[in-house]
Specification:
This protein is α/β, with parallel strands linked by helices and 214 residues long. Helix content is 46%, strand content 11%. The longest helix is centred in the middle third of the chain and has 21 residues, at 71-91.
């Protein structure tokens, strides 16, 4: 790997797979019966990439729609959301170069940090054949910053010896808060500094792939 880098931590949606639009479509479908509030709902959804879906559902119900929010609402919305996204995320395209990069997981300490629910995420990774590419997977029970810090402790490394690869401003902020390096992937979200178009370029920056071919 690039000089000084010992551990690579990946985001999933929009970083390894082209799934961002899938989850946006699912959120819109959940609340399609409220057309007068849908723009506000989607603005909130897109502005809070690292808020777990259950908290988003509650905020939308209570603060945007002015509705009561119950455990039954949480379970109903969660089941429907999972049904809307699961098969599409299993089948959606890789971000170019992601498959080649993850194939190196047996040789390097790769980790995954995502805000998706754990069982759903593990099932998606298994269906895509990449679960074994990661030393550990961190899901929605962790904040991304805490997950990164836990990885640093597990590896026994200095923060600057790790890099987080993500595609959102929240990913970048989590990396900064944990003190690790950040590599941005351009999925259309605003990032500070350079963002690479795909994992060929990001892998080249890490010293793991030859870049420039998609």
């Amino acid at each position: 790997m690039a000089l000084g880098i010992k551990t690579v931590i990946f985001d999933f949606d929009g970083t390894l797979v082209e799934s961002v639009g899938i989850k946006d479509d699912a959120f819109a479908a959940l609340f399609v019966e409220y057309p007068g509030r849908l723009d506000e709902i989607m603005d909130y959804h897109r502005a809070n990439n690292h808020t777990i879906r259950y908290e988003k559902f509650e905020h939308i119900h209570r603060n945007i729609l002015g509705l009561e929010y119950t455990d039954e609402d949480r379970d109903r919305l969660s089941r429907r959301f999972s049904a809307l996204v699961f098969e599409r995320i299993v089948a959606c395209p890789w971000v170019a170069g992601a498959g080649d990069l993850l194939a190196l997981g047996a040789e390097h300490p790769f980790y995954l940090v995502s805000m998706s629910p754990r069982e759903e995420l593990l099932s998606i990774l298994e269906h895509r054949g990449i679960l074994g590419c990661f030393k550990a997977v961190y899901a929605s029970e962790w904040t991304k910053t805490d997950a990164i810090r836990d990885i640093l402790a597990a590896e026994g490394i200095d923060p600057l010896a790790a890099v987080y690869v993500g595609d959102t401003p929240e990913d970048q902020a989590a990396a900064e808060a944990a003190g690790v390096q950040f590599i941005g992937r351009d999925s259309g979200r605003p990032l500070k500094g350079r963002a690479f178009k795909d994992m060929h370029e990001a892998g080249a920056a890490l010293g793991l792939l030859q870049g420039g071919v998609s």
